[in-house]
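Closing statement on the PXL sub-project.
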Amino acid sequence: MEKYTQKKIAVINDISGYGRCSLTVAMPIISVMGIQCCPVPTAILSNHTEFPVYFFDDYTEKMRDYIRKWSELGLEFDAISSGFLGSAEQIEIVLDFVEKFRGEHTHIFVDPVMGDHGKLYATYTEEMCEEMKQLVGYADIVTPNVTEACFLTGTPYKDTGWTRKELLNMAMMLQMMGAKSVVITGVREGAFYTNVVLEQGMKEASFVKVKSAGNQRPGTGDVFSSVLSAAVLNGKALKEATEMAAKFVRDCIKKSDELNIPHSNGVCFEEILGKLVKR
Ligand code: PXL
């Protein structure tokens, strides 16, 4: 009989019923890439918070009981990833989860989902920003967008016009906070989006440039981090995983524009999910 080798990732993220972000994106993408996706829900929303109204049910009070059962069962994971968090206390819960479930070879992915376009999300508080800085210190790979990298490092935000040195400095500041490797996503540079990859122990960053196929949409950060984490678990080097994730996001945006998907509906990744199938 073949040895059991399928990998497992615990994904701590919200479930937003409509608008294609967080777990509704992570579960299909990670699964199609051949990895078992085990969700830990942080909140249940009717739809993401970029819509003018939304129902938001914070799951903080239930999370410890939920996680305790996983401890009792002695479950183990090859990776832990965290995404959208609904309260400052939840960040503490994630820290405890990492302490409890981290093994010698567990990859810790932290996507500090805090905001976009220079602004924090509606549910994000100052206290949560401070807690998030602590969580970043536990990451093997942290994947902020430019807005999040700015908030985490106290750098003034700009949409474009970043120099390579400024980007490298920001990535190094994230490493100084304790993150081992850093990927700053979606830096707008003319007709391109650039991703800054600074790996553990490297003095220089790699800049992964992908030609833009349209405007950024909600949920593209979740698509990116899901592809990246599954690709790393499947053995890809961080730069290759970044390239794969950035190109898939680009193709999703292209398809969504072609099909006239409304901006708030995110990306119609389902149309091209087959490109990610692990063969
Ligand atoms: O895609 C990030 C995200 C995740 N979860 C919720 C959100 C957003 C972005 O708006 O509102 C609930």
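The longest strand covers residues 36-47. With this model delivered, the sub-project is considered complete and its resources will be redirected to Aim 3.
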